[in-house]
Structure formats: structure tokens, C-alpha cells
Amino acid sequence: MGMKLVIVESPTKAKTLSKFLGKDYVVYASMGHIRDLPKKELGVDVEKDFEPKYINAPKASKVIRELKSKAKEATEVFLATDPDREGEAIAWHVLHIISEKGVKLNVKRVVFHEITKDAVDEAFAHVRELDVNLVDSQQARRVLDRLVGYKLSPLLWKKVRYGLSAGRVQSVAVRLVVDREDERKNFKPEEFWSLDALLEQDKAQFLGSLVKIAGKKAEIANQSESDALLSDIKDNFLVDSVEKSDKKRYPYPPFTTSTLQQAGSNRLGFAAKRTMSVAQKLFEAGFITYHRTDSFFLSQTFLEASRGFIKGAFGEQYLPEKPNYYKNRSKNAQEAHEAIRPTHANVTVKDLSEFGSDEKKIYSLIWQRAISSQMLPAIYEQTVVLMNSNEGKYTWKAGGSTVKFDGWQKVYEKVTKEETEEEEKADDEEKLAKIPDLAQGDKPALIELKPEQHFTQPPPRYNEASLIKALEEMGIGRPSTYAPIISTIQERGYVVKENKYFYPQDVGVVVTKLLTEHFSDVLDYGFTAHIEEEFDKIANGEIKWVPVIREFYDPFVKDVESSDSKLNKKDMTLLEETEEICPDCGKHLNIKLGKYGRFKSCSGFPDCKFAQPIVGNGNGNGSGEVLDETQLGKCPQCETGVLSVREGRFGKFVACSTYPKCKFTKPYLEKIGMKCPTCNEGEVIVKKGGKFKKTFYGCSRYPDCKYISNKNPLKNEPSVQE
């Protein structure tokens, strides 16, 4: 019997798959994409129905030679790439590479959503042809993204700054961050007060909150109203009613790509890219099902296995009479695709000895979520007490909650950081303090009145979890695109992540303003979601891909040509108009974005050329803006400018404030406030080096003193000030 060739993407996947196939099978890895659009040209013929010009990946030449050679020797070729559009496209490109004139190949497509013996056997027993509709859908996305990027990026170079780039979905994600920041800036907080009463019954203290005044909702606008209440409320509290009820809290559904990334961010602090990289390893090693999915569906095999595990490990009292099923939120979710789950219910994190901590943490989340989804709800006994004071004028409410049955929470451990806003709200009901046994007619004693001032809060900035959630809810992107979207907008310098939240950078604001005003379709949330729906229709064979691209491209390219001729660069770089007066001509100053960050410019430019760098703007986009100019003295080169600390692409440095007239620079030594523990003469400074510019600590007397540390020595040594 001849050799059978199986082609997958990665060596890890090949190794795992080889365990389940016979000796007649040879599994070979393509190492990802081996063919793609060229990097240095458009690569799409807009005159010939947007025909893509694919080229072989330069680094794949050796792989291509070996694939062709092995395909000629094989009696059968099985394309076993991932079970999504990207995987189908890789298989299609591989087929094109190995199909040579005069060589007849027996090629089949196999698809499996988990790499287990049963799943692999099932897949090879039910081979199919390549799904051209899936390939066309991926190709449509690739072509459209290439057209947008290659047409808009040169416009940004000319009108804003050289080297910028635009992306169809990435630019929309940046707009979300920019719009949220605008909401926060325009938000006007409103003052309000709350009033709690610390009460005591049978030596047990508890809190009651004021909820009604004279039968109407209690609304305390300011301190004077609060003070008036404090002087009026008397110590004559009376319990009107005590109601006890059981509340069920149901388990969460198993993970989809989106919810896994959100949980990885909020629970573990993992970036979406990191979570997906770890999940890829777990999938290829055969421990979890395919991790790019928007379905809650679980196979009957897993349902039976998980129910058996739950019964044996926790007892029949945790097992519902029938399996729990979850309705998909995404209308495009495919039932054939499962949620993310462990391939074997009885394999716990303890069985992953071969993996590192990242893999164990992600697997633990996936296992807990999938197993707990098939357990009974948790039951809480909730107590609500209504009281009055001042003979019924004021109504007070107290509440408590206790766990009667932990249910699914036996498995899915509660942590401080919740996965979604909805889950956090649900938890608030469980955080109610315990209250003493009270009965109608009881008269708890007033210990203290506790007024508290509050202000309404602006909407929070996006973190990775909430940004992914927003993209998913708006229908922007798909499970496989969330992680690269978030990575790209940071790599391009359009947003920065600080303390886990995204802040728009000036360049992101300027680019978003330009695209929103002149390319409304590209940045319109609804239009972007509509395009995703069109891609789904292509994948389902409902429409063809070329008309979809044509409908978008024809008006889009006209907008590009029009904008190129009418846009003025000085208008595009405007960030903010100010009331500050120009010292040279008396006109108002504007804040603009320049090559080296923010600066003040006269609104009369180019007639008036007054310009001044902005000190302390802290934009952080790596463009060399001034961060601090205190105590650094005059420039030793021109003797007119002031030395200031700037932020460049390689970190902080010292430069003259008159740049570019004076180009004096020198390294910035960021001191941490302690003497060198080795020589006791130099100062410990923060440095960056290596391929990835990692932060480390060294002595300012280097190379005379070669002290170096990867950890901040202040955590172990007293500072100079101490």
C-alpha cells in the first residue's frame, strides 16, 4: 500500500496527529501560509475583477519543494488544515502549489475540531472536497483589506505623517477608543448623596439604606439636603416587613473565542494575542477543541462524558436531570462548530505536566467553564427588610444573602476579577452583607447615620476585554480577528495601553478625524458590520465575492482621489483650538500634531510661523514629544534653547527645545533614587536593551561598574531618601 500524505499547518499539530494515524500516513507541516499577496505592491488587479496576484512566500521555498516531492510520491493527499475560512484558504493555496501539469493527484479535504483518536477517525471516514465558498470569503476579506490599506495609507503619509497606515477593521477599533475618550472629556459629573443608617438588633449591627422620602424615591442632591435629613431623622426605626426568597444563579455557557479572550484578560491579565497563542498550543496538542468559534454548542459525546465526571467527582446532587443547552447569541454561529472545551472531561490541569504555567492557567479556565456549564445552578437565600422611621416619613431597606447550595460554583472558582460586566453585576447581589434575624415590629437601635457624597461617573475606558466585547456586539470582525486587531492598533501607535486601559494617541485622533470626515463608510460601525455579514453570505454560497468588492471599491476610490486634492495638511494635523494668543501676531494659537508630537502653532500660519513645543503633554506615541524640561538647564550647544526630556521610539532622551534648529541630544539617565549596591558611587538607572528593548537596571558609572539587575533593586534595598 502506498504512502498517504497529510498536510497540516504546524509541526506540533503534525506530531499530535501522527499518534492517531497508521504507519502508511506521513504528516507534513506547511508552516502556515505558503502563498500570499506581495508586500511591496497592491497585488490586486482592479481592472480584472480584483484578481489577486499571489506569490510564494520567500521563506517557504524549502517547504514548497518538499511538499511537491512528497505529493508526487503519495497515493492520496489529505489537506487537514484548521476548520475555518483561514484554514480552508491555506489548504486551497497548498493544493495550487502541489498541483503540477502532468501530475495527477488524489486530493481530499479532512476537517476535525479536536485532535483526538475518535475525531480523527471520523474525519478521515468522511472526507470532502475543498469548500470554494469558504475560500472566496477569506479571499474577499484579504482583497478588501489590501485595497483599503494600500489606497488610504499613502493619503495619510501626505496629509498627516509619513509611515502611517490604515486598516478597514483596525481603524474602526481605534475610532471606538477615540469616541470613548471624547465621551469622557465631554462628560459633566453630577453630585448626589446617599444615606445609610448603622443599626443594631440583639447586639448585631447591620446597614439600612434610605430608599424613599414621603413615599417618593430618595434623591439627595447636595450636602445641604443631606444635612437637613440628618437633623430630621429620629431614632425610632420600625421593621415593616421581612421577606426571604431563594434565588438561583445559573452557570455560564462554555467559552467562545470572544469570552475566552475576555476571561484571559480580566482573570489572568493576558493580552488577547497571548491567550490565543496559548489556546493554539493546547488545540494542536489535542487538549482542547478548536479555539476560533462563536458557538455554545457541545457535542453529545462531551455532554455524556462531562455528566459522568460530575456525578463521580462531586455527586449526583450537582447533576441536572438533563444536559444544559445554551442558545447562541451570534446569528452566524455554526452548530457544527463546538464551543471551546477540553477534549476529555476527566483530564484536569494536573495532567498537563508537559506544559508551562500559561497553558495550565488557560486550560484550567476552559475546563472549569465547560464542566460547570453542565451543573446545577447555585442557590442563594436572599433576605430583604423594609423599615421606616419618623412615623413612616422615611423608608429604609436592608438586605442579606447566604449560600444554600454552591452548585456549579463548586467547580468554577470565584475570583476577585470577574469576566464581564454582566457577571460583575450578578455578583453584586451576592456581596450583600449578612443581617441578623429580624421580624415585623422589631425596633432596631440607630447607632450612626452615614451620609456619603457621590458623583456620576463617565463611561470607563476600554480594556482588552471590553473592547473585544464591543467589537463582537457590533458585529465588527470575527473570532479569529480580535487578537490581531488589538495588537495592530497598539503596534501602529494609534492607542496605548496603560494600567490595562486603552488611551488614544494624538496620531490616532488625527487619523480617526480624517477618516471619519472623509471616508464615513470605512469608519461607520454599521457599514463595517454589514461587510462582515456579506463575507458570511459569501461563505454560505449565497452571493459572489467580486460584486461585494466592486460595490465598496468604486465609490471608495473616488473618495480617495477627491480627498487627495482637497485636503490641506495643516488642517488635518489640528488637534485643538485654544484661546491663547500668539506672542508674534496676536492671533489665536492652535495645538497641532507634528513629526515630534504636539506643539503650539499660530492660527495665522503660514503668514505667521510662530511655533512652540508643548511641555509635559505625555502623549507617549514614541514621536519625540517633550515630557519634562525642569532642572535640566540651557542647551550647551546653542545656549538659547532649554534641555528637555523627550520620548522617542527607543525610549526617553534629552534634547534641545529649539529642535529642529538645534539638534543637540544626549542619553537620558532615569534614576530610581538609590546608590549602586556594587560600587556605592554611581546611581542605579533604568536602561533598555536587547532585541526586544527590555527594561533592566544598571549603574550610571558603566563600564567602570558593571552592575546589572533584571529586577528593581528598590524592592530589596533602601533608597537614598530612606
What portion of residues is helical?
Answer: 25-40%
The CATH class label of the largest domain is Mainly Beta
The chain-level mean pLDDT equals 87
- The total domain count is 6
Query: What structural category arises from helix and sheet content?
Result: alpha+beta
The strand count comes to 29
CATH superfamily of the largest domain: Topoisomerase I, domain 3
How does the major sheet shape up?
A: 7 strands, antiparallel
Q: What is the name of the CATH topology of the largest domain? A: Topoisomerase I, domain 3
Low-pLDDT segments, ≥5 res: 415-431, 616-631, 716-722
Specify the CATH architecture of the largest domain.
Answer: Distorted Sandwich
Task: Assign an overall shape.
Answer: globular
- What is the number of helical segments per DSSP (H or I, 4+ residues)? 19
**Radius of gyration computed on alpha carbons:** 32 Å
The percentage of residues in β strands lies in: 15-25%
End-to-end CA span: 79 Å
Keywords:
722 residues, alpha+beta, Rossmann fold, Topoisomerase I, domain 2, 6 domains, seven-stranded antiparallel sheet, four-stranded parallel sheet, globular
Structure characterization notes:
- With 722 residues, this protein is α+β, with helices and mostly antiparallel strands.
- It folds into six domains: 4-130, Rossmann fold (3-Layer(aba) Sandwich), CATH 3.40.50; 149-187 and 485-568, Topoisomerase I, domain 2; 191-250 and 379-455, Topoisomerase I, domain 3, CATH 2.70.20; 257-375, Topoisomerase I, domain 4 (Orthogonal Bundle); 571-667, no CATH class; 671-715, no CATH class.
- It is 34% helix and 23% strand.
- The chain is built from 19 helices and 29 strands.
- The strands form eight sheets. Strands 9, 10, 11, 12, 13, 14 and 15 form a seven-stranded antiparallel sheet that branches. A four-stranded parallel sheet has the order 2-1-7-8, with helices on both faces.
- Strand 1 (4-8), helix 1 (11-18) and strand 2 form a beta-alpha-beta unit.
- The longest helix has 28 residues, at 132-159.
- The termini are far apart.
- The model is unreliable at 415-431, 616-631 and 716-722 (pLDDT under 50).
